[in-house]
Design goal:
By secondary structure, the chain is an all-beta fold. It contains one helix and eight strands, in the order E-E-H-E-E-E-E-E-E. Strands 1, 2, 3, 4, 5, 6, 7 and 8 form an eight-stranded antiparallel sheet that branches. Strand 5 and strand 6 form a beta hairpin.
């Protein structure tokens, strides 16, 4: 089965923080809107995260993420789980501090919810800026 984007209008997303609580300008929705002009910008602090809850069970095989250089994570922890279960660690991945879209293959995992934790920000204050986030795989 070919991989397809798994994030849709029914996917529920949450984030650790939004810069100055200005969701209109820097909110989570901007990671998924396809625009190169908008982004999610976290507030300062260590260990920022994004949580996704899919409307149906999915099999994740790849992540694509585009940071703003200077506001990237050098270590991302990927966790996932089924509805009603605790999250379990799937893998770590190590993005570069660049503006380009980066792709990371993951061990194919069936899940209903996915959490990406951004550790080791390249920003002194711990802020993370994400222009694009895609999760690829199969809808089950």
């Amino acid at each position: 089965m070919p991989t397809a984007p798994l994030i849709c209008n029914e996917t529920v997303s949450r984030v650790s923080s939004v810069l100055n609580r200005d969701a209109k300008q820097f909110g989570k929705k901007h990671m998924f809107d396809g625009s190169e002009e908008t982004c999610w910008n976290s507030d300062q602090g260590s260990s920022q995260w994004v949580m996704l809850e899919f409307p149906q069970t999915v099999k994740v095989s790849q992540l694509q993420i585009q940071f703003q250089g200077g506001f990237a994570s050098q270590l991302c922890i990927l966790e996932g789980g089924r509805k009603g279960e605790e999250l379990v660690k799937i893998s770590d991945f190590y993005p570069e501090d660049i503006n380009a879209l980066q792709s990371f293959r993951t061990e194919e995992t069936m899940l209903d919810k996915l959490k990406i934790t951004f550790e080791n920000s390249t920003d002194f204050f711990g802020r993370i800026v994400v222009y694009r986030l895609s999760v690829l795989g199969e809808k089950l």
